[in-house]
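I need you to check the entry underneath: sequence plus fold tokens. Let me know what the token row says about the fold.

>
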Amino acid sequence: MTQQHNKTRTCFVLGGARSGKSAFAETLAKKMAADTRKLVYVATAQIFDDEMRKRVDLHQERRGPEWTLCEAPIDLCNTGSCDPC
């Protein structure tokens, strides 16, 4: 009998504003999830103006439908909007 283990890996990416964090993290996540293909995007941004709306729209278009979106703009650790595991 073989056992399969569900290994969940998390990587937290930090960087300056508009430094390429999202693109880097998306590429890294795809590599890390190559075996499971479970991709979760934790969005921490809040949209307060048109410029931010355009940036968020661009990110959503780039990611595509294979990502599960988890929105956590205020309390990252206690968000109830999704279960990334």
User: Anything to note?
Assistant: The CA atoms of residues 55 and 61 lie 10 Å apart. Strands lie at 39-43, 67-71. The radius of gyration is 14 Å.
